[in-house]
Amino acid sequence: MDLCTDIILFMKLNVALSVLSCKISCTLLRIFNKGGTALPGKIASFFCKDILKYVSENVKVILVTGTNGKTTTCRIIENGFILSGLNYFSNKSGANLLNGVITSFCLSSSLSGKNHHDYAVIECDEAALSHVTKFIDPEVILVTNIFRDQLDRYGEITNTLNLIAKGINNCESACICINADCSLCTHLLSITSKKAILFGVDEKIYDNLIKEPKDALYCIKCRYPYTYDYITYAHLGGFKCENCGYQRQNPDVHAVGILNTDASGSDIEIIIRNRKYKTRVNLPGAHNIYNSLAAACVMNAIGIEDTHILNAIGSFESGFGRMEEINVNGISLSIILVKNPAGFNQILNYLFIVDIKFILIIMLNDQAADGTDVSWIYDVAFEKLLDIHNKIEHIYIGGSRAYDMALRLKYADIDMSKVSIEQNDANLVNKALEHNIPIYITPTYTAMFNLRNMLAKKYSLKEFYE
Amino acid sequence: MKKQIRICHLYPDILNLYGDIGNVITLQKRLTNRGIDCTIDNISVKDTLYVENYDIFFIGGGQDFEQEILLEDLLVVKKTLIKKAIDENKTFLAICGGYQLLGNYYKTWDGTVLEFVGALNVNTIGDKKRMIGDYIFTCEDEKGCFDVISFENHSGKTFLSSDVLPLGKVITGYGNNGQDKTEGARYKNVFASYGHGPLLPKNPRLADLIIKTSLKEKYGTIDLVDLNDELEIKANNIMLERVKFHTKK
Ligand SMILES: [Zn+2]
């Protein structure tokens, strides 16, 4: 044997060991009922440090990043893949850092490192993007939006922007899909000098919009205040800088008309590259119109037919805490994950259009995945709950920072006789169920996991597991 | 005659990092709940500032990008007005970035010096390492010492000159610089702290200390009725216990 075949053999052995160790550690973790997705990826890199490069070869990868809406958008894209019969795999939202992505790829590879899927739909944390694109050359990178998020983890918003730009710049030929209405997102195009396909909404969505602190009031290029033709929510909309001319560009995939938006979804007129359709977005709220458009943009980029794109949006059923509706003893329980002010304010906008009496449960945790700094609750416009206090029968508060949350409501002038704190999740849900009316639960990330586990055990909701 | 405290929120659209508004809301509620009128004016870039129209000034923290937006307005137009207000014993609450801005300068870790307002004789030196986490410091009012719990998140290390007192003494965490156990600053009627975001909601004694300072300055007398602070104290104590326990381990 010559040296060359020796090296090839050695590399193959490394890859095999790496993939095998990942698969075995995953199985072991599952046996011992430990969910972890990062450790197996870490072990895999120990045996072969660029394992991700091998196991992603020949796979067309879609990377989805941005502050809010990553998971929902991935699931809508997957729905389109299923409808068009494409062979793909995806990662779970809990596995969106480098090691989690490695785990997902190794699990869907053979020991030789060959991946048998044509496509991968991969959710990727903003800070992890540049690490992932060191090894993967994706077909598409989607940036959903950029908002102020967990300051203790991501730092300043311009920092997030630079991290995403770095990730994009690692890629040779990827098609970039970007939110045209987000002045921070489209700035990425000038700092990466990449061409992009844009998606956006051409008019306002809500008549009464929550007043919230804006993450991008001043021009990212020259620091002059933006003027807006319209705002859809937060800082998204038809922005323009009168000083340097930086402004929203016309999108390629866009909602031209919001015909109706109610508690279960929205009817929109959508244009996909000059072809106009009417469709239902089967998820409520402005943010889900954006998620649907983002998914449509990606599907269009990889050549999925328009009919499948429209079906993917119209037939989508949510899951995994993103406006997930389950039924407990005949009572509807909607779980909506909250991570940051922009997301929570969107839920308040949504609660305004709910036309029934309901119970609100807020669960605030402060572990690393939730953000250890809970200051952000003061940037959520809870004062607006006063306008819909007739619809809210009672508010229950849980989680490790329940008292901070209750205090926030007190200082928002909420009638505190309608607010109860209950730090035991099971008791919390029990008390809420006693009212016998629909329940909306807004947990932070780790609170959602605890809640799901409790619900699965207590009400044996098997199908509730992913 | 009904008493009235007029709050000026400086640069609220720009310096609004992570829930700073919670402090203004807290001051307002704790005043109105005691039958004292409270008005809030937002004064930002290009707005004219009449310092005589206000009793309490609040200035919060911002991101670097945002602070650059207001620097010209602050240093060219409002600097002398803010100094005048402080000299005339107006009450100030400055948080995090706002605290740094009131100082003499900020020296970045690569040596660039940014001249600031110079109303407080303190200097800030940037560091690569962030000082971040829940922290506790003690403060003093007329009844004695009390514990303040908050969250800090800053990379600037602030050092006080001898004419400026600290707001408190660090029990756990970093405070001004992670070295001398001081936290924040007290000068005339200025209160400054690294307690980022909503410092006041669950530290009602500190909130009332600020309110009393402004009332004494304006009316010469202070008589504040007690409020029902059960929830505030519970929220405070839970975090105190947790952070103290965590530090002991
Ligand atoms: Zn501009």
If you had to describe this structure to a student in words, what would you say it looks like?
With about 475 residues, chain A is α/β, with parallel strands linked by helices. Chain A has two domains: about 55-315, Mur-like, catalytic domain (UDP-N-acetylmuramoyl-L-alanine:D-glutamate ligase, 3-Layer(aba) Sandwich); about 320-460, Protein-Tyrosine Phosphatase, Chain A (Alpha-Beta Complex). Chain A is built from 15 helices and 17 strands. The model of chain A has no long low-confidence stretch (mean pLDDT about 90). Helices cover about 30% and strands about 30% of the residues of chain B. In chain B, the strands form two sheets. Chain B has a six-stranded mixed β-sheet. In chain B, strand 11 and strand 12 form a beta hairpin. The radius of gyration of chain B is 17 Å and the shape is globular. The interface of A and B includes residues 158, 218, 220 and 376 of A. Bound molecules: zinc ion.
Main sheet properties of chain B: 6 strands, mixed
Measured between the Cα atoms of the first and last residue of chain A, the distance is: 49 Å
CATH topology of the largest domain in chain A: UDP-N-acetylmuramoyl-L-alanine:D-glutamate ligase
Mean pLDDT figure of chain B: 94
Q: What's the gyration radius of chain A in Å?
A: 23 Å
Supply the number of helical segments of chain B.
Answer: 5
The H/E string of chain B reads EHEEHEHEEEEEEEEHH
What is the number of helices of chain A? Answer: 15
Fourth-tier CATH superfamily name of the largest domain in chain A: Mur-like, catalytic domain
Secondary-structure class of chain B: alpha/beta
Query: Bound compounds, please?
Result: zinc ion
Inertia-based shape of chain A: globular
Our count of domains of chain B comes out at 1
Q: For this entry, what is the oligomeric state of its chains?
A: heterodimer
